[in-house]
Amino acid sequence: MTIPVPSAVDSREQIVERAVSDPAFRQQLLANPKRTLEQTLGVTLPPSLEVVVEEETASRVCLVLPRLAPASEELTDEQLTAAAGGSLPIPIPRPAAMPEPMPTPTMLISSLYLNVRR
Hints:
The chain is mostly helical. It has helices at residues 8-21, 23-31, 33-41, 77-84, 105-117. Helix 1 (8-21) packs across helix 2 and helix 2 (23-31) crosses helix 3.
């Protein structure tokens, strides 16, 4: 049985949806975002992690840019090739010999008829 694990995007969307529909939760999130996320998600976030929640207004728009990965985290050319166009040898099992079909009444009658006529 596979248990689905929510992605970070799913979790963010759920948090935003709840903040829109639940004013008390929205205030908690704005006042103490890290503690509110820990309680909501049931996790303990690392002490070094800073969580920032900003509220857009009619005169202010928030834009979040993704983190740039340091050069040490970049994939090598070989890793890129393997990920983009590489392939893994996957053995394809060959089917075993097909078993003889179970004789149906029609097959039995036909074989008897053929045996009698011979």
